[in-house]
Amino acid sequence: MKSVSLACGGGGAEMNALINDVIFKCFDNEILRQSNDGALLDFDSKKLVFTTDSFVANPIFFAGGDIGKIAACGSINDIAMMGAKPLYLSCALIIEEGFELANLERILCSLASVAKDAGLCVVCGDTKVVPKGACDGIFINTSGVGSLLDESLPASIKRLKSANPEKKIKILLSGDIGRHGAALLASRHGLQSLLSSDCAALNTVVESLYDAGIRPLAMRDATRGGLSAVLHEWARVRGGIEVCEEKVAVSAEVMGVCELLGFEAYELANEGTFVLAVSEDESQNALKVLKEFNLAANIIGEFCADFKGVRLKNIYGSKRFLDEPKGELLPRIC
Amino acid sequence: MKSVSLACGGGGAEMNALINDVIFKCFDNEILRQSNDGALLDFDSKKLVFTTDSFVANPIFFAGGDIGKIAACGSINDIAMMGAKPLYLSCALIIEEGFELANLERILCSLASVAKDAGLCVVCGDTKVVPKGACDGIFINTSGVGSLLDESLPASIKRLKSANPEKKIKILLSGDIGRHGAALLASRHGLQSLLSSDCAALNTVVESLYDAGIRPLAMRDATRGGLSAVLHEWARVRGGIEVCEEKVAVSAEVMGVCELLGFEAYELANEGTFVLAVSEDESQNALKVLKEFNLAANIIGEFCADFKGVRLKNIYGSKRFLDEPKGELLPRIC
């Protein structure tokens, strides 16, 4: 590889290669290599969660949201996925000369409203304007800071990796998949559809899980690369994962877009749907909490020691392996 | 104004209008309105400094630095300017499809090396790749987290505003001005020159000031809009500022570029030069510390109660008012 390809931003194998071979090499340190959604840091005597995300979504307005809403949800969710409460957000804008002020206001108010509903606000920012043609419309970066809901038990790849190998670990999914990716696809292809992005802040459902005494080993919002990318990442960390296909909810509208355009729902991005690894004894309680927020939530599978990769099992008992997402068919999904 | 103009990113009057009339309106909160380089936040029982900056510099490599170096210095300096020690950095990349991997590595290593020298590291990140034409090369966002060097006395606009009106406040400058802007100008116009950007991390000099017992009322690195933008911002907060022109160091090379291309050195961006507001009794000590780092440092002026705006006085005693930077002659300086 001599140059960066679109696939390097797709959330799949090529992105992992870029991150591991180039970025981690330059920024080499233990915290980064833990590969969580956010960094878990020492600050004074407390743990601090710190995260960053840039957003280049296109179109900037779509059914169920806009780039401002994703920008707020993205960093809020990255913090929530560590088992933490988001406290503060930053917002840095790169705007193309000539961008309509009315659209800018609409986007920023959307970002601010998500932040407000999640109980936090934008405390610092930056504004750059570039000449026409130097960026396409608007790009937004949000970074966020939060504190752990349970200092002794953050949700993390490390905890998932080191959990007792004798204990069964269940995999839960908080809702139906693929709505964000399918909504953007539909809007790009001018398809009439009832689809709407699942874009939403996940801090409230995560706090409810912790309030109910559940301590997920790991959590991940299934953004770029979709459910498939999360399952493959976890399978690399802890061996095989078996998923019951019929437990994974996919709406008829998402199915329709997938069939029409040749996509796999497992690979479509979500912006308000997450995957949880929970010990078996907590799994029924966790499902009960998830279902209070979305009836489509389910226990979709479990970790297995006897094979590697991600295996799908259907109701007839037949099994197939799910490929890791590769390439980039959907650039600028977030 | 119906759309965003290039001038809205220039660090002058138009940018202030965009920030005050649009961005602050959407994100309305007290912390943001304090208009510091970073936000001063409560975290547990400690104060936490949080800052963000996006970088769109063009060219990406220039005499004295590259976009990676500015990206690291930018956030480190924003934290240092609050009287704080930078602790952690994030790095979010937006890369154009086809960007050369060798350039990416060079930029990231440059960023990492500045961070390392400043005693911190990049702990979280994000990578987005956009199709050819959707962004020009590479844009980098860094956000940063730090802790105050003196919890009771942060450097801030608020402290500058509320300082005893009877006490004289001196204005110091840490070095000669305009080198970053002039170096980028020279390279864009293909001028042969000895110019090199002043791009540098300022955390060490700030820590030395605090170690020497100095507690600046406010500090600001003179980036977009240059020295002029900082002086005007402070004059709005606390009345008039008088500057002795001959105390402001400008190198012959910067002078040359300014004369050739019709720029004002006061308005050219710096990336490693900062302005300090210090009470008169601390000013000589502060100067001594600054001179250990750069002999061009000087006490350049003071706040005056009897006029508004920024007034320049030359050695012959004649006085003229310095205009606030307006328009945008130098897009993508950082």
Automatic annotation (TrEMBL), chains A, B:
Q: Which InterPro entries match?
A: HypE, PurM-like_C_dom, PurM-like_C_sf, PurM-like_N, PurM-like_N_sf
One Pfam family this chain carries? AIRS_C
Q: Which Gene3D superfamilies match?
A: PurM-like C-terminal domain (3.90.650.10), PurM-like, N-terminal domain (3.30.1330.10)
Q: Where is the PurM-like C-terminal domain?
A: 170-308
Which residues belong to any copy of the PurM-like N-terminal domain?
A: 36-147
State the similarity comment. Belongs to the HypE family.
Name the PANTHER family on file.
Answer: CARBAMOYL DEHYDRATASE HYPE, HYDROGENASE ISOENZYMES FORMATION PROTEIN HYPE
Name this polypeptide is given:
Hydrogenase expression/formation protein HypE
The protein's organism comes out as Campylobacter magnus
